[in-house]
User: Fold these one by one.
Assistant:
Number 1:
Amino acid sequence: MSFSINTNIASMLANMHSNNANNSLNNSLGNISSGSYFSSAAYDASGLSISNQLSAQVSGLGQAIQNSNESIGMLQIADGAMSGINDNMQRVRTLTLQASNGTLNDSDRAIIQKEIDSLMESSDDIAKSTSYNGIKLLDGTGGSSADGTFTTQSGAYSGDNQSVTIGDAQMATLVGSIDVTTQAGRDAALGTIDSGMQGISDIRAELGSAQNQLLSNISNISLTQVNVAAAESQMKDVDFALESANFSKANIMAQIGSFTQSQANASSANLAGLLG
């Protein structure tokens, strides 16, 4: 009858349990130090992937809010300039009515014409010079397609955008020429001016509508950003009370594992000595 003694089994088992305890200790320490359950991709690969997608969405929504605010600033500049053009056209209309009165002579109308020409030139200068970040806003050439259409990336993903087309506010487009020095010119002037003022109102209405849409969008995506950030936090952030308890347990088990391994190694060595 024969028997055999494998002196390595106890040491191997002790070593395995000690390694497992040390791995748990390292994972717990990593989670606590980083504040995240995903301090290592090996901890939860699928959870890390979802968390990264949520994080990208939160960042994207933040940039979309900034984009929308910048576009609102641009639209406000355009609207302020259009207000100045509108004021000038109001004055031009008043002067045209004045020139149409039969109590004025040709010299009086010539003086009025000079003021009208000055106001028209001022309005044209506003339309041609108003810009945002070097981009012309009121001459019909702004935007990515150079046709007055401005697109705002108002969401976190491709296709999440809003567009506004700012019409050409130059006098040649809105009004053309005004001549109050002749009867025929005065007869045509009021209709031309009223048509031009309607064009100004249409442009300002478009600007106001676009601002309201962007403000509504900011309100909506701000709430979405908060909810997505909360979902990411719930998935990723460490529960420090629970993880501290896990760390204490893992630390104790690691110490026990080290002690057990040393005892198993010592026992194997003693047994080998006795049999030697």
Note: The chain has a mean pLDDT of 81.
Number 2:
Amino acid sequence: MGGPMAGHLAKGGHDVTVYNRTSAKAEAWAARHVGIVAATPAEVGAASEIVFTCVGNDDDVQSVVLGPDGVVHGLAAGSILVDHTTASADLARHLGLELGRRGIGFVDAPVSGGQAGAENGTLTVMCGGDQSTFDRVKPVIDCYARACTLLGVTGSGQLTKMVNQLCIAGLVQGLAEGLHLGVKAGLDMDKVIEVISKGAAGSWQMENRGRTMVRDEFDFGFAVEWMRKDLGICLAEAHRLGARLPVAALIDQFYAAVEGRGGRRWDTSSLIHLLTHD
């Protein structure tokens, strides 16, 4: 997702320096856009007023930000780091403190909208941080977002993304069960989806995944392994807060079963596979 997002920044007239841990991906990006490829995250920091990171998990963020060649070693006081990774709120708070000691601003800013949202510049961005730092980065984020909102102090963006992922997980399971019943009943599911998507059952998942779910098409979208990573973050935070998430815990087990069927990289809508295939 970071590649298209950086592309929108370049198209928006910003001077962009990019880094990817797979250098060929950075070179491919530079062949399509106006920008510079850096050899290390620190070089990106030294060349930038605002740095955006978008990687896989907490360990990846720690590495590219605070590692030996991390962004932090290049950023100057007064610059800002925006982390778009879906990671833990604890990591966001840790980064906020570490960067704050160096006079560097920080915004935790996980996104929703998937690869299509990144490519189309229509992501939803959930932010945590202070108002003044947010006000500086929002006009830049708007290059690839249709919504960008400050939810509260550092960590609030990640907490909001947890709410987002929990809502999606429960919805997809309900959608899978409803569609499975319709197929078993012999209904014309294209017609069923068309009509019920206009009512109270309608959702982004139904509009964008309903038809592919009943056709066993899962080789696209947001991967099961990443949803399991996100649900793990949610469950750990819930344990810390004393919040009960029984449905999320159950659906995480369902996704583990999908992985057991070779579906690590299948779209999260593949929950229906557990119902339609013995």
Note: The first strand starts at residue 17 and ends at 18.
Number 3:
Amino acid sequence: MCEKEGFIERYYTDGPKDRVDETIRDMKDYTRSLVVEEMNLGNLIENAVKEMAAQEAKEEDEDIEEDLSLEEIEALRD
């Protein structure tokens, strides 16, 4: 069909035909309900992002302090 007509038509299917289709439909429905019905979702995401940024900053500070202390040790050896 593709060689004769240059494309393959898409046919509408009424519903899921196998477990994969059912799983995809369920995930879409869950995601839609999560976004539409969960009123506090935006705040939860925002707080999680802020917490991740704070954790990264803390790790960077610890790395800098560790580097400084190593440099001090080396300076004392010289």
Note: Helices lie at 2-5, 19-37, 41-77.
